[in-house]
Amino acid sequence: MSLLAAENLTKVYGSGEAAVTALDHVTVRVEAGEFVAVMGPSGCGKSTLLHLLGGLDRPTEGTVAIDGQELTRLSDTALSELRRRRIGFVFQFYNLIPVLNAAENAALPLLLDGVRAGASAEKSDAWLARVGLAQRERHLPTQLSGGQQQRVAIARALVADPALILADEPTGNLDTRASDEIAALLARVAEEWGRAVVMVTHDPRIAAYAGRIIFLKDGSIVDETRLAGNAEKDARIVKDKAESLSRSRS
Predict the structure, then answer these.
(1) Which residues contact 32 (CB under 8 A, 6 or more apart)?
(2) CA-CA distance, 158 to 93, in Å (whole number)?
(3) E strands along the chain, which residues?
(4) Domain containing 40: what range?
(5) In this predicted model, what pLDDT tens digit does every residue of 167-176 receive, in sequence order?
(6) Helix 146-158 × helix 117-130 angle, to 10°
(7) Sorting pLDDT into bands at 50, 70 and 90, what band is 132?
(8) CATH for 203
(9) Total domains present in the chain
């Protein structure tokens, strides 16, 4: 059984003549320890797919299950609890709380779940050390670079030991060097720490850090590519395929 299994996901906004199909019968399966990137042109349904996979929105049709637990059958309360404990989110703009330091930001999911402060602080410090911020725990977000802030966000996503990490354009606000560092860190999250990682990105070079690429167009999966692990060659393959699909007719 796949850790993440989405079957025939469809999302329609509006109704009647004003209805817009953002996602059209998409099926995706992701295994534990797998790093999957989702690519496609603007408006193709990438973020919609991520929101459905994370239970941030409910599908018009289809199902999403994590470890066999179907999100679409859960109450809002149960779904919120599952998101806190089984899913970690990483966003483009970090979403750190400005008045909290790195350790306090990373500990938030545990504190919100009722874990005592001492245990939360211990785990947040441990994860900050793992993501390369052992000397930055007491720094405020304004005292950190963009790449360091994103590392705090990744530590926060991992602190509750979730099975699944969902990353929406996590390098979109970073320079080239920091982008590569964050993409490599997400690959480590999958390979070394065994989490399933699904990342939305528009950048073929960043997508090439993943083991598999899903290409979306007009709300549907139009191609899937497995990569060989050669960064430079894989980046060219992804770039060529993305350009070819953008030129092709729907």
Answers:
(1) 3, 163, 194, 195, 196
(2) 17
(3) 4-13, 20-30, 35-39, 61-66, 69-70, 87-90, 164-168, 196-200, 212-217, 220-226
(4) 4-247
(5) 999 999 999 9
(6) 130
(7) very high
(8) 3.40.50.300
(9) 1
